[in-house]
Design a protein that fits this description.
Oligomer: single chain
Structural class: alpha/beta
CATH superfamily: Alpha/Beta hydrolase fold, catalytic domain
Helix content: 25-40%
Low-confidence stretches: none
InterPro entries: AB_hydrolase_fold, Fungal_lipase-type
Order of helices and strands: HHEEEHEHEHHEHEHEEE
Shape: globular
Number of domains: 1
Distance between the termini: 40 Å
Radius of gyration: 18 Å
CATH topology: Rossmann fold
Number of helices: 8
GO biological process, one term: lipid metabolic process
Largest sheet: 6 strands, mixed
Protein name: Fungal lipase-type domain-containing protein
């Protein structure tokens, strides 16, 4: 067993997921990089026995472009002895924003249109549709159309290796397992939203809801207050250690990080744009 705790394991898996985010090439070329490098990278991290069981999946909106990065990279790893007794832990790791990915920037910045989250969860196998402005109600949970597009792609794009989509894989996870969604930056935003979507939509039909956890790092905001309240109700904060990062179902951020504060320009909450230190 690794000397690292499970949250350190998770961050290491996220680092491995990002090994090709700085690379450019066609989807097939970047897929090959991940196929060749992911499992060896995980093995070299010293975090114990984590095996890739689905993916890695590499997706590009324009798969034949050679001068852009992958729009999404994600995989599922299984740890047979990952601080969960004798039961397996499955980790869905999602790469962060790639600077040379136009689709990534569109997902981050496309907030002018929103998607009804409840309707999206009921039919996450279909591309999300922006809600008509006249239909919006302040009591309903909504997420940004850009983030909804990202979640849809993560759930439905097929893995080159297995030929199946993540949604299909999640449906078959054994009932005694623990499932953790994790990612950093855009990957963190997508991981928390994806977790709630599959929980609400019944995709994780075999797994008890209390065995589904989120560990997002430096993630932005997906939706409105009713969406945040729904997430907090579905994934209550769990503190499990003395260190601040030893929690479940929370966004891990620091005072210098712009991403978790990006959409908060107010001054009431600590996590806002105006609270970022400007001196060195």
């Amino acid at each position: 067993m690794s000397s690292y705790n499970i949250r350190q394991n998770l961050y290491s898996l996220v680092l491995a997921c990002n090994i090709a985010t700085g690379c450019t090439g066609t989807q097939a070329e970047l897929q090959q990089k991940m196929d060749d490098g992911l499992q060896p990278s995980i093995n070299d991290l010293g975090i114990g026995a984590w095996n890739v069981v689905w993916g890695p999946a590499v997706w590009k909106l324009h798969p034949d472009e050679t001068y852009t990065a992958a729009d999404h990279i994600w995989f599922v790893a299984r740890g047979a002895d990952a601080h969960n007794g004798s039961n397996a832990t499955y980790v869905i790791a999602i790469a962060g924003l790639a600077a040379k990915s136009g689709a990534n920037w569109a997902e981050v910045l496309n907030t002018a249109q929103v998607v009804d989250f409840d309707a999206f969860c009921k039919d996450a196998g279909s591309p999300p549709v922006a809600a008509a402005p006249e239909s919006l109600g302040p009591q309903n949970p909504y997420i940004a159309l850009g983030i909804a597009n990202g979640v849809y792609r993560l759930l439905n794009a097929a893995s080159a290796g297995q030929g199946t989509a993540l949604a299909q894989f999640l449906e078959d996870i054994p009932c005694d397992s623990r499932v953790i969604f994790t990612g950093q930056s855009l990957g963190g935003t997508l991981s928390s939203t994806l977790a709630l979507a599959v929980l609400q939509g019944g995709t994780l039909k075999n797994v008890s809801p209390d065995k589904v956890l989120v560990y997002s790092v430096s993630s932005g905001t997906s939706g409105n207050r009713p969406f945040a309240d729904l997430f907090a109700k579905s994934f209550p904060l769990i503190s499990v250690g003395e260190n601040p990062y030893e929690v479940w179902n929370a966004n891990i951020w620091n005072k210098y990080d712009i991403v978790p504060r990006f959409w908060n320009t107010g001054s009431v909450e600590e996590q806002n744009m105006r609270a970022i230190p400007t001196g060195v």
